[in-house]
Design a protein that fits this description.
Length: 122
């Protein structure tokens, strides 16, 4: 299982370092149109739509969406009803499960729980 993500301030990048058992791919603003041809989970932080557009650019590239097994959100609970809304929107638009979420770069509990979930679908 591949782990695809983007990260603007480094939290998700830091989280993904704990998932070293899985190959990862970081999507960047310069070139989000990367084609993957293997199953992956997408980890997305929440921001305003102008900056998260790259997630949709990536998902709509080639057959990427069909390989997506689920989305995991990173966010901040202070955003209340907007908590992890980017991941929620991705899951809705591409009809894939919202697997889990964590705040900032995740706690050790978040890491263990999410590893188990990825293992379960891998
Ligand atoms: C300008 C800005 C807007 C944000 N908007 C949201 C939001 O709407 N919902 C949410 O849950 N978190 C929001 N966050 C929190 C980030 O999603 C969270 O800190 C995340 O861990 C950032 O991941 P990154 O460092 O990998 O980019 C926002 C943070 C910033 C700086």
């Amino acid at each position: 299982m591949k782990v695809v993500f983007f990260s603007l301030t480094g939290n998700v990048r830091r989280f993904v370092k704990n998932l070293a058992d899985y190959p990862s791919l970081e999507i960047t603003q310069t070139d989000p149109f990367v084609e993957v041809n293997e199953p992956f989970v997408f980890i997305a932080p929440a921001y305003e739509k102008e900056v998260t557009e790259i997630a949709w650019d990536f998902m709509s590239t080639g057959n990427n969406a069909s390989f997506c097994k689920g989305v995991i959100g990173s966010g901040n609970l202070n955003f209340d009803s907007l908590y992890i809304y980017t991941a929620k929107d991705l899951a809705r638009d591409y009809e894939v499960p919202l697997l889990d979420s964590f705040e900032y770069f995740g706690t050790s509990k978040d890491i263990e729980r999410i590893k188990e979930k990825i293992n379960a679908i891998a």
